[in-house]
Amino acid sequence: MNKTLEGQVAVVTGGGSGIGRAAALRLAELGAKICLLDRVEETNDKVQDRIQENGGEAIAVEADVSDPASVENGIRQAGERWGRIDIVFANAGINGTWTPIEDLSPEDWDQTLSINLRGTFLTVKYAIPYLKRQGGSIIVTSSVNGTRIFSNTGASAYSSSKAGQVAFAKMAALELAPHRIRVNAICPGAIRTNIGKNTNRTPEAEEAKIPVLFPEGSMPLQDGPGSPEQVAELVSFLASPQSSLITGSVIYIDGAESLLI
Ligand code: NAD
To answer: Which InterPro entries match (predicted)?
Structure first.
């Protein structure tokens, strides 16, 4: 195995499940040391154990990405332990509550925005001082929902948070370019993870559904959703020197799902 990320340190938020888990395992395979930040301690610890069993180095820190002190603490642990941070995968997110706007409570709106968008801001903010030392790569997980308004009716808070992440990533790419820090947003289509299980989708959102040209969760390229491992390959490419000229980009990984909208 070519250890292209040997000696590098990566912070992965939402590393306990789905896309974050797959990316953490892949980055570790390529030689990076991994700091896993997730609010679910049990699954986060399991990913840490798996990386260590495979001969890699990892720490699992219980953290809520919407809480500044929690994020700062997690990132400091990585920085102090290994003396550097090169890669940040700002990925933790929730679907939250999907319901028509008139029924969406301000509290539910705030919860989605504070985990998905504020969480991305906080993760990047506290990592910058470490990244500035030698340069690095930040990858933000947005969604096809962030740029194309999708068939997921009721997802106004989710889509707004995902669109905000795209704007934030572009702004950060410009601001951080002089420090040799690249920032890109990825927009997955339907990926087989645990996120759907935790969606609070109301019957009203279900009823308001817009007809789609292909079955939900499917893609023009294939029947059924993509895998977290497919997304992890893109993340590790964007983390690596092979993508040295790519910054400020918004990259779809959706089997052409978004082209049909
Ligand atoms: P997932 O539910 O499998 O994993 C998300 C992880 O984030 C979980 O481990 C969860 O505990 C963690 N998390 C949630 N809130 C947190 C918080 N406040 N602090 C710390 N950790 C928190 O879901 P996933 O599909 O792997 O989602 C990862 C990202 O991918 C999300 O940003 C999501 O919006 C995005 N995304 C997913 C899909 C998809 O179809 N699965 C499509 C497009 C975008």
So the answer is: NAD(P)-bd_dom_sf (IPR036291), SDR_fam (IPR002347)
